[in-house]
Amino acid sequence: MKTEDARYTRLLGSLGPSVVLESHMPADRYLSDWTGDHRGQALAILRPGSVEEVCKTVSLCADMELPIVPQGGNTGLVSGAVTTSSEFAVVSLERLNRIRRVSRDDFSITVDSGCVLQAVKDAAEDSGCIYPMALGAQGTCQIGGTIATNAGGVNVLRYGMTRDLVLGLEVVLPNGVIWDGLSNLRKDNRGYDLKQLFLGSEGTLGVVTGACLKLFPKPDRVETAYLGLQSFEDAMELFSRARYACSDLLTGFEVIGSECIGMARYAYPDLPVPISENTPVHVLFEVSSGALTNLREMLESFLAEEMASGSVVEAVLAENKAQALSFWKVREGLVEGHARKGFHVRSDVSVALSDVPRLIGALRGMLTRRFPGWMPQAYGHAGDGNVHFNALPPDGLDEDRCRAIGQQIEHAIFEVVEDLGGSFSAEHGIGRTKQDRFRTSMSGPHRHLIEALKHTLDPAGLMNPGCMVG
Ligand SMILES: Cc1cc2nc3c(=O)[nH]c(=O)nc-3n(C[C@H](O)[C@H](O)[C@H](O)COP(=O)(O)OP(=O)(O)OC[C@H]3O[C@@H](n4cnc5c(N)ncnc54)[C@H](O)[C@@H]3O)c2cc1C
């Protein structure tokens, strides 16, 4: 923070110490993100506690031509919320955290954008409903962050991405004016659907301050199975049959290559893994429904057929919620294990469902051939065609060398994905780490539309410069 700067003094004078973080308060957590890959700097850290304070903060920054970086829980994986310049101000939404209204009858919840996702899920459950967005960072990430990144997670298969879960938004525009689109209507075809502009906009078009979100009835029954299969081909064929057999009751279908299990154990040494660790592909399979469906019977009969045909070689059904949670812990643990390992190549790519096995085969082949010693890690939301293909560096390689080779690996991953007509960013967005790829991958007309949109909403270019488009 530049407390001696005249702009800092003006911010403090106008907004007061409840909004402007003062020099004696710890600032570290606002300046680096979950990945720890980048350490930022900022002229000031601003923490408005009401929508009016957000308006005042954004107008004042606009007046001072001070660029701002909106910040939620700082769990984004592409450094979108980390400042790169001491000439920017961080606008943290952490104090804007009220649940405004829960309506069981409308199946909706209206919240401040700084609410932590878990708090929104808890409030929904208290009313007998669910807000189905679920991801590893849910105890820290904020609703505004999930909106600005159009987050996905493990329930997209059944409920869609954040884009599908938002009924209305309230946004403070770059000039400090509020756009009130906080509708709870499910059908509204009065012209352009403006809220969608802000979903996935990564803080480049405005500051989201409030959201009305869709709720769903809380399933009375949830059944979770942990399966072992011989290949990703078998896994995707199983997925296809499961969708036809179980219809929309299928809520989760996560695949984990057996090479990742060691990483889950690295994070949680005592973690029970329900099947043989060396079975090539582990699948987390979840179905859910209301009370009238005999879900257990349906799942048992589906899996009995699959085991008889040899497609599923091992299957364990959770006997209770605690056991189901311990199954999911394997999935969470491997992400945690990667993080604890330190620098590694992370990717978040998608292809058509039928191309998932080909994608994983091609990526593993590429890594072994071109980057010997790097360890492939393939897992992901395969039911959405979304694969995380990570690569762990060989032991003993120094960090600078790791990062240099890591960039080459990332480039090679993107080439494989694009050859299959896929996306190099399925969930995490562009941020500051995928900007170059974004720029070069756009067609002329696509780039023109994106730039026109950015210029129309943020003509002075003050919203999150250096992120995605700037
Ligand atoms: C362990 C772990 C697991 C994860 N799993 C998944 C997953 O399964 N699926 C998935 O999609 N993502 C996943 N993520 C990443 C995901 O993007 C974030 O968890 C979440 O969506 C970001 O929310 P946040 O509040 O932390 O945002 P931040 O990291 O603070 O910000 C992210 C971006 O949003 C912008 N932003 C934040 N708040 C606002 C606001 N109020 N108004 C305007 N712009 C704003 C920021 O400027 C930045 O560009 C995971 C992350 C971790 C650490």
Coarse structural class? alpha+beta
Sketch the major β-sheet.
7 strands, antiparallel
CATH architecture of the largest domain: 2-Layer Sandwich
Number of strands: 17
Task: List unreliable stretches of 5+ residues.
Answer: none
Ligand catalogue: flavin-adenine dinucleotide
According to CATH, what is the topology of the largest domain? Alpha-Beta Plaits
Q: How many domains make up the coordinates?
A: 3
Element layout with pairings:
Blueprint: H1 6-15, H2 28-31, E1 44-46, H3 51-63, E2 68-71, E3 89-92, E4 99-103, E5 108-112, H4 117-126, E6 129-130, H5 143-148, H6 156-159, E7 166-172, E8 178-181, H7 195-198, E9 207-214, E10 216-217, E11 221-229, H8 232-246, E12 250-257, H9 261-267, E13 281-289, H10 295-309, E14 314-317, H11 321-341, E15 349-350, H12 356-370, E16 375-381, E17 386-392, H13 399-419, H14 435-441, H15 444-457
Parallel strand pairs: 1-3, 2-3
Antiparallel strand pairs: 4-5, 5-9, 6-10, 7-8, 7-9, 11-13, 11-14, 12-13, 12-16, 15-17, 16-17
Helix pairs in contact: 8-10, 9-11, 12-13
Bound molecules: flavin-adenine dinucleotide.
